[in-house]
Amino acid sequence: MKRKRLGEVLCERGHVSAVDLKKALQDQHRKFVHLGELLIARGLVNKQDRTAALSEVSTVPYLDCTQLEVSPSILKLAPPVLAKK
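-> structure tokens emitted (85 positions)
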């Protein structure tokens, strides 16, 4: 089975038109940027839609780490500079 690509998933979900995707892909080659970042910069997709599509393409579930609470005992295992990040 052929693996889907980011643009294909975004088109299937109705987040970007085939015309906009084609133009973005052409520009991507000239600018050497990630397609998802280019589509966000153009206001064609938002970060949530891009992230969900990337999760599907990579088959790696997305986890929003900003919503996690890390146990203080775990943070003590990491160097202070890393723990603050």
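The helical segments are 6-12, 18-31, 35-41, 47-58, 72-75, 80-84.
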